[in-house]
Amino acid sequence: STGAPRLADQKSVILAETSRIYAADGTLLAYLHGVENRTIIGGDRIPAVMKDAVVAIEDHRFYEHRGVDYEAMVRALVRNMEAERVVEGFSSITQQLVGNLYLDRSDISIARKINEMFLAWQVEEKLSKDEILDQYLNTIYFGSNAYGIEAAARTYFDKAPVELSLAEAALLAGLVQAPSVYDPRLDPDAALNRRDEVLDDMLAYGFIDQ
Fold it and tell me: What is the pLDDT of residues 112-155, one digit of tens each?
């Protein structure tokens, strides 16, 4: 379609990152960050347990679809029509990525959703699933001004992502949908219940065993 957005036409995205100030002896003195507290890391520094947790709760058919999960879309449309309101979304991880990078997140129009789908298809042609997931985990917001998995692991658990336990990874994955609702500092019970939902999904989709 001539009106469809092209990935090549999208502006280059430069993600804001946190700067570090060191003393002459190498001691870390301070972190400086603007609106977004983020440190971008390579996929080899993101543990499989974190990737699995996010896929299980956000897009369990991620490795099967090509950018848009039509099964999830139909299921969500049926549920939303039955409820006569939006109770379930259907954006894949790839759609969420292009939405965060290239589109206005405050726009909830059908046109915006269609553009998101077109861009998601193109990203899947260009990048591998691992590359998409790594970019996603460096991009998404986890609450408490933590953007990306490095900032999230440091903010909530004071450790590097590679050090996260299964339970910790599941809690962080649960934040993605609604960081303020599941904030463990504001509502520990909601955070733990959401963490358990992630663990249940990881079990159901074969990422972990009983």
Answer: 788 888 889 888 999 999 999 999 999 999 999 899 999 999 99
**Rounded to a whole number, what is the largest CA-CA distance in the chain?**
63
What gap in Å lies between CA 54 and CA 181, rounded to an integer? 17
Is the pTM value of this prediction over 0.85? no
Do residues 59 and 129 touch, judged by C-beta distance below 8 A?
no
β-partners of residue 31 are 20
Write out the E strands in the chain: 19-22, 28-32
Cα 109 from Cα 100, distance rounded (Å): 15
Q: Which residues of 97-126 are buried (b: 16+ CB within 10 A; e: fewer)?
A: bbbbbbbeeeeeeeeebebbbbbbbbbbee
Bin 143: left if φ > 0, else alpha if -120 < ψ < 50, else beta. left
Q: For residues 75 and 89, what is the distance between their CA atoms, to the nearest angstrom?
A: 9
**What is the dihedral angle through the alpha carbons of 196, 197, 203, 206, rounded to the nearest 10 degrees?**
-140
